[in-house]
Every structure is written in C-alpha cells, then in structure tokens.
Amino acid sequence: MAILYVALPLAGVFLGWMIRWLYARFQLTAAEQKAARITQEAVKQAEAQKREILLEAKDQLIRERNQQERENRERRAEIQRLERRLIQKEENLDKKVETLEKDEAALNDRVRVIGQKEEELAGQEERYRKELERISGLSAEEAKKLIIQGLENEAKRDAQILLNKIEQEAQTAAEKRTRDILVTTMQRMAADVTAEVTVTSVSLPGDEMKGRIIGREGRNIRTLETLTGVDVIIDDTPEAVVISCFDPVRREIARVSLERLVADGRIHPARIEEVVQKVTREISQKIFEEGEKVVFDLGLHNMNPELIRALGRLHYRTSYGQNVLSHSKEVAVIAGMLASEIGANRELAKRGALLHDIGKGVESDSDQNHAEMGMELARKLGEDHRVVNAIGSHHADVEPNCIESVLCQIADAISAARPGARRETLDNYVKRLESLENIAEGFSGVDKAFAIQAGRELRILVNNEKVSDEDAKELCKSIAKKIETDMRYPGRIKVTIIRETRIVEYAR
Predict the structure, then answer these.
(1) Rounded distance, CA 65 to CA 54, Å?
(2) Model confidence over 318-333: pLDDT tens digits?
(3) What string of H, E and C letters represents the secondary structure of 236-270?
(4) From CA 355, how far away is CA 382, in angstroms rounded?
(5) What pairs with residue 323 in β-bridges?
(6) pLDDT value at position 121?
(7) Phi-psi region of 396 (alpha: psi -120 to 50; beta: other; left: phi over 0)
C-alpha cells in the first residue's frame, strides 16, 4: 500500500509531465507550421515583387533604349544636315575660288593690255609733243604755262558764274525762308486782336446827380478836378458825365473815384479827397500788378521795378485803338518765336520787344519821342545794350546793331499789320461825329443835331416856327445829300428830323 501511495503520485507527475511535454510539442509544431506558412508566403511575395521589379526594370531598359535610339537617330540626322551644309559650302567656296581665279586671270590680262596701251600712249605722247614743239615753236614749259593760264582764266570765269548762281539761289532761298518764318510765326501767334477805343464817361442814375457832383458854388467839381488833374465836363448828355485828360492814369483815377462817389451818394470835398487817395493807391498797385503779370507770362526775369511800373502804365494807354501793353506783349511773343526759328537770342529778343514802347509809360514832360525816352530809361536801369538798341531802333530813330533789334522791328510791324489791330483813333471818331452835327446845324431852321448809334444815325431838332412839315421833308433830303457829298463813311447814315410843337402852361 505504501508503495502504491508513492507510485501513484509519481505516476501522476510523470503523466502530467508527459502531457505537458506533448502539449509543448504540439504547440511547437503549430508554430513551426505557421512559421513555415509565413515563410512560404513571404517567399511567394518576394518572388512576385522580384518578377514585378524585373518587369519594371525590363520596361525601363526598353524605354531608355528606345529613347537612346531616338536621340541617336536625331543626332545622325543633324550630323547629316551639317554634312550636307558643309558639302554645299565647300562647293560654293570651290565655285568662288574658281570665279576668283578666272577674275584674277582676266585682270592680269587687262593689266597687261593696259600696260601695253600705256607704253603705246607714252610713245605717241612723246611723238606728239615733239611735233607740237616743232609746229608751235614753243618748248614744253612754255606750252604748259600757256595751258595753265588758259585753264586758270576758264576756272575763274566758271567760278564767277557759279558764285553768281549761288548768290541768286541763296537770295531767293533766303527770301523764301524769311517769308516761311514770318508766316509760321504769325500763324503760331493767332491771338485775338480787338481795338480798344475808350470813351471815358461815367453813367449817372439820374440827371439830378449832376447837381450834386457840381456842389454848392462848384466846390465838389473843383475839388475833384484839383485832386485828379482832369476836366469834368457836365453838358446836356443825359445821365452821363465826361472826363477829359491827356494822362490815361489820371483819367482812370477820376473815373473810378467818381463812380464810387456816385454809388455811395456822399459827395462833398472831404469825402472826395478820401476816395481819390484810396483809388490812387489802388490804381498804383494795379499798375504794378499788370506789369508783373506780363513779365511773368513771358518768362522774363530780373526786371527792374521801375520798368515793371512803366509797363503797367501802358495798360491804360491806347495807340490807334490798340492797347499798348497788349501790343507790347504780342510783339514780345512774336519776336521770341522769330528768334527761336533763326537761332537768335530768344530772351533778349523778347525783352527788347516787350520794352520797345516803354517810353509811352514814362512820367516825363520831356520833348523827346517815346523811343528816345525808352532808350534813356533802359540804359539808366542797366538793361543790355542790345535791348537798349532794340528800343531805340524800332522806329528807325537809330540804326539797329544786332539781329534782336531787327526782330523787334519785324515783330512790331507784324503786330500792327494784323487785320483789326489798328482802327481809327478816338479823335478821328469824334471828329466824324462833329462833322455830321455841323453839317446839319449849318442849315437854316435847325436848332440842334445829335449824332447817335456810333455815327450811323443823325437826329435833328428843327424850329417848328421856321420849318413846316413840307419843308422838313425837303430839309431832310438836302441834309442827306450834303452828307453824301462832303463825307466818306462806311455803310449808310440814317437822317431823322424831329419837328414838334411844345406848349407849356402852369396851373396856379
């Protein structure tokens, strides 16, 4: 029994170990089988990848080979083209070389022939020379001198003929060029030119204002005339007062002052003096501003203030209906254009042209003309001698000594010759109106005649006691006939006779 007790545990342990060993053996076998399967699958995948890689490599090799073959074909084609070009060039070179050889041979033949002809000509020349010496009795040196002398005379004659031709052509071309330059300049300077005829008059709100302007015992009008240096003319002209003065600046001061006094309504000596002083300062400032504006517009620099002020005074001057400042500016522009066309000094030409009428703006009682006064002023203020000469020579008072002075003369003539640039002066205009009135007033029975509508109409007041209705018709025809005979005028003039009976009674 004891042995059984010992053998049974031992048998159990052995049996367990056997079972354990078998289980482990079984597990090991399964693992080996799984490993074998994995190994087989890996081998299969590796072989498949190997085949794919081999196929890809094969395809890549095929592509590269095809690419290489294509490139080789292209290279061979390019090489063939180059070979053909080289062959063609060689053929062309061969042809050229052959042609050159032929030309060289021909030239050699011509040189040889020419050499032979030169030798023949030399021999003939020697024979002819000896024959000429024998016939003429002159040596070679003497004949040479005669021939040279004859050639010199002929050359001089031809040269003189050519020189005359060149001078004529140059003169014609110069005249044409001059006309072209003048026409071009005038076309470029297409400025509007308006004649400025100024009648200095002041409009009034009513005729009763005339009495206020005159003032008590004429104190107001005397004060105004004394302060401004003008003549204030108060006549029968309705609602208007005329200002007369040879100085346009003083006339402008009087006009502005009177307009302000009329607008203000306060007219007495103290007020007149105050307004005149204020307007004088304003006009003086405006004169300088007008001069500065012109100088700035023309691009001129370093102009003396006295010259600028004199230029500004030209704004109030007219010549033949032309504003002198506008005329001077136009002359400067034209002179600058002409100078740029011919290559002269443009700055000096413009400066001299702008200042050519500066003497008209000088405040002086000298008996010199405006050109001489302008020269003196410009010289005193340090202007260039060419500018001074341009001022003095624009009316040929002195000889022009530079091209800029000549350009100033030309530009002045161009400006003055423009259509509409110069019209009849105010004096001529007034004289024509006075002539109309005087013709009418020269007939019996005419009380008063008025030229209106710029001289295009003549209104005549007749005495109703001396002139009947029938006589008025005949008188109107006679006056119209007299005007046609004695006067020269553009267009036509309307003659109107007014005959009225005016009866006045007063109710007391």
Answers:
(1) 16
(2) 766 677 888 888 888 8
(3) CCCCEEEEECCCHHHHHHHHHHHHHHHHHCCCCHH
(4) 13
(5) 318
(6) 81
(7) left
For 201-416, CATH gives 1.10.3210
Q: Provide the 8-state DSSP code for 428.
A: H
Assign domain 426-498 to its CATH architecture. 2-Layer Sandwich (3.30)
Residue 136 identity (one-letter amino acid)? S
Helix axes 248-264, 269-298, angle to 10 degrees: 130
The residue written with tokens 């002209």 in the block is 237
Residue whose token pair is 């003086």: 284
H-helix or E-strand containing 274? helix 269-298
What are the residue boundaries of the structural domains of the chain, listed by start?
1-135, 138-188, 201-416, 426-498
Are 455 and 489 in contact by the 8 Å Cβ rule? The answer is: yes
CA 442/CA 448 separation, integer angstroms: 10
Residue with tokens 């267009």: 491
What kind and span of H or E run contains 450?
A: strand 446-452
Question: Closest Cα to residue 314, out of 304, 323, 322, 302?
Answer: 323
Q: Which amino acid is at 299?
A: G
Task: State the DSSP code for 231.
Answer: E
144-158 residues labelled b (16+ CB within 10 A) or e (exposed): eeeeeeeeeeeeeee
Provide the 10 A C-beta neighbour count for residue 494. 11
Q: Where are the beta strands (DSSP E) in 270-323?
A: 318-319, 322-323
Which two tokens mark 382? Answer: 């340090």
Name the pTM for this structure.
0.45
pLDDT score recorded for residue 221: 83
